[in-house]
Amino acid sequence: MDRNMEYRQQLVQEYEQTVTPFLRYLPWFEKNAGGTGSTLYEGQNASEGTMRFPVYDSTLMSFVREMSKSSLMDRNYSYVYSRNRIKTHEDERKRIASAGLEDWGILRGILSRYVLGGMTKGALWSEAVKEDIFYLTLKQMQKIIEFWDKPLDVR
C-alpha cells in the first residue's frame, strides 16, 4: 500500500515540475479564449491576388516553442485519439474535463496534437486557442496536481 502512495507522490511531483512553467500562460489563454491568437498579414501593397498568411501572437509562439521541447509532448498522439475515440472538439473537452491522474497520457496526447500538429498545419494553434483546448488542458493538469498534492504557486 505504501508503495502505491510513494509512486503516486513521485508521479505527481514529476508532473508538477513539468507543468508549472506552462501555467504562466493560463491568463493569456483565458483572455484570448474564442479568439484566433493570430492575424492575417496582407503586406503593404496588397491587391486582390496577394496571398495572406497568419502572424501568430508572440505569447502563443513562445508557448508552442517551449511546449514542443517539453516532456509533455507525445509523438504518438494519433493513437491517443483513436484509442479513446476522440473525433471532435466536444469529445476533447469531455475527455479533458473527466481526466484524472490516470488519464495524464490523454491530456498529453491532446496537447501534442495541437502543438506538434501545428508545426505542419499552423491553423491548429489558432484552433486550440479558439476552442479553448490549451487552456482547458493546462487547467485540468493543474487541478489534478493540486488534488493530489498542494496548491501550485502560479506566477
Keywords:
mainly alpha, 58% helix, two-stranded antiparallel ribbon, 155 residues, 2 strands
Please summarize what this structure is:
The protein has eight helices and two strands; from the N terminus they run ααββαααααα. It has helices spanning 2-19, 26-31, 58-68, 77-83, 89-98, 104-117, 123-130, 133-148, and strands at 38-41, 53-56.
Structural class: mainly alpha
DSSP strand tally:
2
- Based on CA atoms alone, the radius of gyration comes out at 17 Å
The major sheet is characterized as: 2 strands, antiparallel
Which spans have pLDDT < 50 for at least 5 consecutive residues?
none
What is the number of helical segments per DSSP (H or I, 4+ residues)?
Answer: 8
Distance between the termini: 35 Å
Query: What is the H/E order?
Result: HHEEHHHHHH
Residues in helices, as a percent range: 55-70%
How confident overall, as mean pLDDT?
A: 88
- Biggest sheet, spatial arrangement of strands: 1-2
* Portion in beta strands: 5-15%
Quick one: overall form? elongated
Structure explained in plain terms:
By secondary structure, the protein is mostly helical. It is 58% helix and 5% strand. The protein has helices at 2-19, 26-31, 58-68, 77-83, 89-98, 104-117, 123-130, 133-148, and strands at residues 38-41, 53-56. It has a two-stranded antiparallel sheet. Helix 1 packs antiparallel against helix 8 and helix 6 packs across helix 7. The longest helix has 18 residues, at 2-19. The protein is elongated and about 70 Å long. The model has no long low-confidence stretch (mean pLDDT 88).
